[in-house]
Design a protein that fits this description.
Blueprint: H1 4-28, H2 35-39, E1 45-50, H3 61-75, E2 79-82, H4 99-105, E3 116-119, H5 130-135, E4 150-156, E5 159-165, H6 173-177, H7 190-202, E6 208-212, H8 225-234, H9 236-240, E7 247-250, E8 256-260, E9 267-270, E10 286-290, E11 294-300, E12 304-311, E13 316-323
Parallel strand pairs: 1-2, 2-3, 5-6, 6-7, 7-9
Antiparallel strand pairs: 1-11, 4-5, 8-9, 8-10, 11-12, 12-13
């Protein structure tokens, strides 16, 4: 005789089995693509780009960090471009601030991420001690930041690529004016940075040149219009001067955006947050946009430059391609 207790026990068993099955299935399929898929993204030069990270591992920060490590086993990136706001919300107080552990060291702990990280300062770093961000390289040898703006070159199998890192917060008037909230912004010499950028671009003869800052030149965002207006007025003429910039890549907006403007050879890329993302909609020039969190993979050969926007499952959402 089948009793009600037996029926209840059977339902409980089946429910428990279903939960275990789903958990195993999800764990096996946590990455939407396989190493064979990722292998196809490899070029002569492979780089990672991540930004807007610092959430103490919460939201999607830890799983995305793990995914970056797993994919790096296949892709073998040469560095991680850390395009600002590694620390929310008030930056760091010193090189010994515990946020270095909870936002960075203990999160990006995969062995394949023990490589050079090239950071720029974001607006949240400017709320704290910006000098401590520059000085952190004395504590962590993978944190390589020689100044507020600097350049790095790569030469692999005849493919050359130059990264130019710039400090965008001081270029924007609202940050300079809010000198209590962003105390170091008004102290920076914009003319000096722009002269350095001009000279660096003038002598840049690499196959590919990518300029990295924290703030966008073009983007869909509810943030103050003055941010983009100042970037377009101050920075854009320098980027266009020598007609050799392939991409301008940034963060700040917490979503993926790829924008191409009419009669402009530069592709404008917003890289999504590596933790907490935001909604987005198309605007003039939008080629692609997505509210998914994630990171990007930059892959270059002599003839092609690709930037792959990766979501938190390892899926390629969109590919930006430049060819020669």
């Amino acid at each position: 005789m089948i009793t009600n207790l037996m029926i209840r026990n059977k339902k409980t068993y089946l429910t428990a089995f279903a939960v275990v099955f789903i958990s195993i299935f999800c764990s096996l399929g946590i990455y939407a693509q396989t190493p064979a898929d990722w292998e196809k993204m490899k070029g002569d030069v492979v780089l990672y780009m991540a930004n807007d990270l610092g959430r103490n591992g919460y939201y999607d920060q830890k799983p995305i960090a793990e995914l970056m490590g797993v994919m790096a086993e296949t892709l073998g990136p040469e560095c991680v471009i850390a395009a600002g706001d590694v620390h929310h919300f008030e930056g760091v107080a010193s090189v010994n601030d515990p946020l270095w552990m909870t936002n960075y060291e203990q999160i990006y702990s995969h062995p394949e991420l023990m490589l050079a990280w090239y950071p720029v300062l974001g607006n949240h770093e400017y709320r704290g001690n910006t000098q401590a961000v520059l000085d952190y390289g004395q504590v962590s040898r993978r944190w390589e930041m020689e100044g507020r703006y600097y350049t790095r070159t790569f030469d692999e199998d005849g493919t050359t690529l130059r990264l130019i890192f710039i400090d965008t917060t001081p270029l924007i008037s609202k940050y300079r004016e809010e000198n209590v909230k962003y105390p170091d912004a008004c102290k920076q010499n914009n003319d000096e940075q722009l002269k350095w950028l001009d000279a660096t671009l003038k002598q840049a003869k690499e196959d590919w040149v990518i300029v990295v800052g924290h703030h966008p030149i073009y983007a869909e965002t509810p943030k103050d219009d003055v941010e983009r207006a100042d970037m377009q007025r101050i920075l854009l003429p320098v980027l266009k001067k020598y007609n050799n910039v392939s991409l301008y890549a940034c963060g700040h907006i917490h979503n993926f955006q790829h924008i191409r403007m009419k009669d402009d050879n530069i592709d404008y890329v917003v890289n999504s947050s590596g933790s907490l993302a935001r909604t987005v909609k198309p605007i003039e020039g939008t080629v692609f946009c997505s509210p998914e969190p994630g990171f990007s993979v930059i892959s270059a050969t002599k003839k092609a430059l690709n930037m792959y926007m990766i979501d938190k499952t390892g899926k390629v959402l969109h590919t930006i391609t430049k060819t020669k």
